[in-house]
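pipeline/complex-builder :: batch 7 item 3
reading input block
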Amino acid sequence: MIVAGNWKMNKNLQEGIELAKEVNDFFKENPAEAEVIIAPPYIHLADVARSLSIVKLSSQNSASETSGAYTGEISASMIKSTGAEYVILGHSERRSYFGEDDDLLFRKIKLVLEQEMKPIFCCGEVLKERESDMHFEVVKNQVETALFGLSPEEFSEIVIAYEPVWAIGTGVTATPAQAQEMHAFIRDLIRSKFGETAADDLSILYGGSCKPSNAREIFENPDVDGGLIGGAALHAEDFIKIVQSF
Ligand code: PEP
């Protein structure tokens, strides 16, 4: 079980350190069943890392090139050097506002794996696609394009987050049945490509308006292995309650 908090573009450095400390100190005293990860903005990573002992660190993105003249970009090796162990890739906001597609994400995933970090690969359909019953096809294409070119060894480092775009930041959550159905579909897809063990070992997180009041009913499903949490991860108390829903 994994619960990861994606802070997006929120919190200044001092606020970020404070939140990280609060979450870390709580789980140091009260060990969680789940692996707990926080993903602050890039510029906080190194400082936040110094406040963490039990909670793991993730970035929210990484560059598609290794180094060089890419003004404003942050490479996987730079992220690794801060102490981060995970990198969120393919978040729907990266896809829609920054035009990231699954071919680009495949490249980013390879670079993150080369640095021995774990990609948290996000996939999910927009509302129109769900309404026209194309959600399985959309997610299948995303997973196949971004992940099927990996070797079995590389794939074993991947975490998948299913995040229906219509549920992100909207207050509308997928029903437990909708989450379970898609997670089972993704696991089957992985089984068909990488085999039974890879499918069984894979963590598939749900993301989309997860809060303390609905986390338990979502996490209870057999194919839901945790959550990727946005808004509720900005409040230590809510995030802690979600982690404790297991
Ligand atoms: C997210 O951004 O990954 C997310 C799930 O956001 P929220 O929990 O705010 O819907």
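note: Strands lie at 2-6, 35-39, 56-59, 86-89, 118-123, 159-162, 203-207, 226-229.
queue -> next item
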